[in-house]
Amino acid sequence: MYEFSRGPLVWIAFAVFFGGSLYRIISTIIQSKKDKVVLPYMKWKFSLRSIMHWIMPLGSVNMRMRPAFTIFSFLFHICLLATPLLTLGHVVLFKESWGFDWWTLPAGLSTVMTLFVICGGILFGLRRIADPTVRLVSSFSDFVLLAIVLGPFITGLLAYFQVFEYQTIIILHMWSGALWLCVVPFTRMVHMIMFPLTRGYMGCEFGYVRNARDW
Amino acid sequence: MREDVERVADVGLDEPIKKLTPERIEKTVNHVLDNECAARLKVYLDTCVRCGLCAEACHTYLSRDKDPMFAPVSKVKNTIWELVKRKGKVDGEFIRNMAQIAFTECGACRRCSMYCPFGIDISYLIMTARRICALLDVVPQYLQDTTNSHAATSNQMWVQQDEWIDTLQWQEEDALLEIPTARIPLEKEGADIMYSVIAPEPKILAQLLGNIAIIMRVAGLDWTMPATDGWDNSNMAMYSGDFEIMGRVERLHWETAARLKVKKIVMGECGHAFRGAVYDGPRWLGWQFPPIQMVHAIEFYYDLISTGKIKIKQKIKEHVTVQDPCNTVRGRGLGDKLRYIIDATCEKFTDMAPNQEHNYCCAAGGGVINCGPPWKRSRMISNRIKAEQIERTGADIVITPCHNCHSGIEDIIGHYKLGKHVKFISEILMETMEIPDEMRGEGA
User: Fold this and answer.
1) DSSP 8-state class, residue A184
2) Which of A24, B160, B258, B320 is deepest in the core (most CB within 10 A)?
3) What is the DSSP letter of B319?
4) Closest-CA residue to A16 (of A205, A207, A190)
5) Chain B residue with Cα closest to A191
6) Closest partner residue to B74 among A41, A133, A211, by Cβ?
7) Domains, chain A, ranges and CATH?
8) What ipTM does the predicted assembly reach?
9) Domains contained in chain B, CATH given
10) What pTM does this model have?
């Protein structure tokens, strides 16, 4: 089981993640042609201008209206993406398999960031219940998705501190990580891939076509 | 829950749903979703993470004590999301509810797109809901009447050609009292400017036509208006979801300008008409951009004042504020030019907060006011925040270069007893602009 999880599963997960993401991007571009009014108005300058404003913390009016939530949300997303990429254990596996490695986070910081993701995810879940608007538009699947997002972080933390039986936990960690990667292109986690496209398009509709700001 | 939202009787909604069959609904819904929508619908549906950050953008949500039912995302949930989820298998009551949301609780002002981290065009999704309602003939009666009028007369208020010409001549006569050489030149081929207005001007606000005759004369411009249909592009069909009629209205408008061989069109103080002519119309007709340059009144008056073609004799003394219309400020970035005009013509100006692109919607535009008297109470409740915003400025006059903002804010001022007046820029110019003595004496 460990061998499968350590080998083919990773390949499958990455293949689904990258293949699925590519499929989503290409199909969106093809569909945009059918929409007719999207591509003729897309301009790099205005797309990037809008994207820059929205990936900069407090770069938009809405973010400035709720600074604490914005900073929290940015940190959550940064930790969510950076921790798995820069964790020593992961990089070592890359080194063993493919012979190259890169800079890693100190173990203490990795742990803190992982904890931040877990607590952050739980807070997002609580917000889904507490905020009447978000509750109204949320469904059970939103909570399932949140659980999938947090899965690898929880199991990763347990594995790191060797809570429960390590061998079982580490396999769970690998499977939950694989699940994480596999669901990205096919669930609302696709927002990770679509952000530059939707934001870029709106940036052009406002900036290029209408000479106005959208932040 | 939606059941708590007041159900307003409207023949245009209540009668047609009795005749709807499940088959017709399903077929129509899937036709629109499959054939008229593509990337945007799919991506927007998949990308929305249900974060609710759009809520604070919406005047109906804010005005109704943050009732979650009025958040933009909830409006999409109760319309398009459900249609997609149920693949069009919904009943007449669902369609009626969808029509109420799409036509009367959203003004398509697009403010929410500026608050969505992904820039999801929520107004586009609502317009798609309207499109489906229109194809099912479930449209508020008053709004449908304007579309019918467009279909029959090309203008939105059943103005006949002889009435149109007669009104222009009457207003020319009124203008003559001020400046004897003022004219409203009809059908002047090769003029520099075709001036476009919307049907409420000849129908109920005719003096605005007289005003423009005077302003054009003072500025010494070569202009014309058509004597035929094609003068009104206010285009309520764009908002009722009847895009075929919308396209016809816009095509006739552009063809009229082409027939008159004008260099550019100046659009009077109307936001819808500008949007229809510059964005929605050309796109429906397959043009990337309009075939002839069109400038909105804000830009036009800015040019006249900044180049000295119009001189300001005396600024108005009353305390003023300004309502930024969605279609020309959020939709064209003319906010700074608008303020230039105000500064040039008014002594005391206090801006609204929020302002410019972030201004709250007037709750009248986007076809909402055109849903007529049955919905007025709902419209007033939906814009308490605008009343509070205006009140905070302390101004006596609200200037706005948009017919919908104008009517909507007058209603709000009346309903909330704010005791203020609403004025167009042209009215401010009539009070402040210098009319040379020799011009007044010309031809006398």
Assistant:
1) G
2) B320
3) E
4) A190
5) B47
6) A133
7) 2-23+61-190 (1.20.950.20)
8) 0.94
9) 2-139 (1.10.1060), 144-304 (no CATH), 311-432 (3.40.50)
10) 0.95
